Amino acid sequence: MARKTETVEGGTGDVFRDLGFADAGERKLRVQLAMRLNDLIKDRKLTQTMVAEIFGIPQPHVSELHNFKLSRFSSERLLHFITLLDKDVEIVIRPKAANHTTGLVSVLVAA
Q1: Which of 47, 55, 65, 85 has the most CB atoms less than 10 A away?
Q2: CA distances from 87 to 14, 32, 67, 103 (A)
């Protein structure tokens, strides 16, 4: 019986880039922002109906946000939602880290 050899290719750490999406950076940013939004919503114990009222969107759209179906949400809109939950958003631009080939966008949460 012949042995079958499988090859495993290491990823870059960015699933969207690995899958070949042209807008990989934007997709990764939206996921990071949605993760923070969902954490804020959970911490405040808000229902989807309450969130819909705060954000001014239909409840089914809140469900999409909760389930990371983000096609209808731009990064700018997600940032706005964060401010509607009484959080400040600060954007810091700094020199690129020496170990990166391109600039990096990431979302950090201050305590």
Answers
A1: 65
A2: 27, 16, 22, 26
